[in-house]
Specification:
six-stranded antiparallel β-sheet; about 15% helix; alpha+beta; globular; Jelly Rolls; about 30% strand; five-stranded mixed β-sheet; Lysozyme-like; single chain; about 350 residues; 5 helices
Amino acid sequence: MIGAAGGVAAAAALTPVVFAATESDEPSGTQDVDSGTKAETFPATRTDAATGTGEATADFAISYVGLRWAGAQDGAGIRFTDGAATSGEWQALGGGCATVEDGGTALVAAGDATAYEVKAPDGASGVRSLAIDTTGGADKTFQVPSETTRVRGVGYLSRPAWGADESKRYKDGKVNSPETYYPLQTITVHHTDTPNADPDPAATVRAIYEYHAVTLDWGDIGYHFLIDEAGVIYEGRYSGDDGVPAFDADGKLVTAFHTSGYNSGNLGIALIGTLVEQAPTDAAKASLTRLIKVIARFKGLDPQAKVTFVNPVNGVTKDVTTVGGHRDWLQTDCPGQTMYDLLTEVRAAASR
């Protein structure tokens, strides 16, 4: 199994035969069996929203601040007046993974600050921020399957196993982003642009979930999978109750929100951390390679092939490599220069 579950059990689920296999990738011919669940507790996510620029405060230690504004992408900043994140100096915002069409957005580590100040670009409007705490809230109980769930031999933490609060997917009593499914065409690699040496990556996944689902109003986390520095794989976007992460029972990919304008049929995998100058850990790179390999084999894709992606919703096309980086699609630094430089190696290893 790739990725130890740490102190949290990964999920088990009924898996179609086509997606169940041994570590050698030979079909097992049998389905995984759900052997029951056990109760696990996670801190409920606490948030405090603010609008406009100026100082905002929260009555809890802030893990991250999610921001969104309309207007120019460059020129925004944030500073924290206490906590361990900074010494009170302005941090420029931009260059992260998430992109929006009509403005800018950022997710910033707050270092347990309780107050911050936002600076918007000239002429910007609709400035919104959300203080997020994913570690200090009241305990919330989830029923986590007792046995490890595997995708063709690759172990992963299901949504319950990292504490995904499914109520975040709802807005005004309805699913905010109803699931749609299309055939898989491409795989895109990201980094989350969050701090490296993360002591609690599951908490960071919950923060990203809150930021994507609520601050950006996407209705869910934007990636299909995330991978931490220990190589642990996390299930991302909700894809249904059939027990297959990212896909429906017919093998079609659920549409996520990781590459604006090119999401349908495009699977997104994010490495947790910032990979601009620092390379991914060996464990993270191994899990990324293995996950790409089994998904590509499952769908008959060549990770090194040059393809023309066709958006099944609007017909927009893009010439890309089957496995690429976020920057191959849009103007962004993601997945960081060091990770981008390793993609040739990852493609080759995933093809063997």
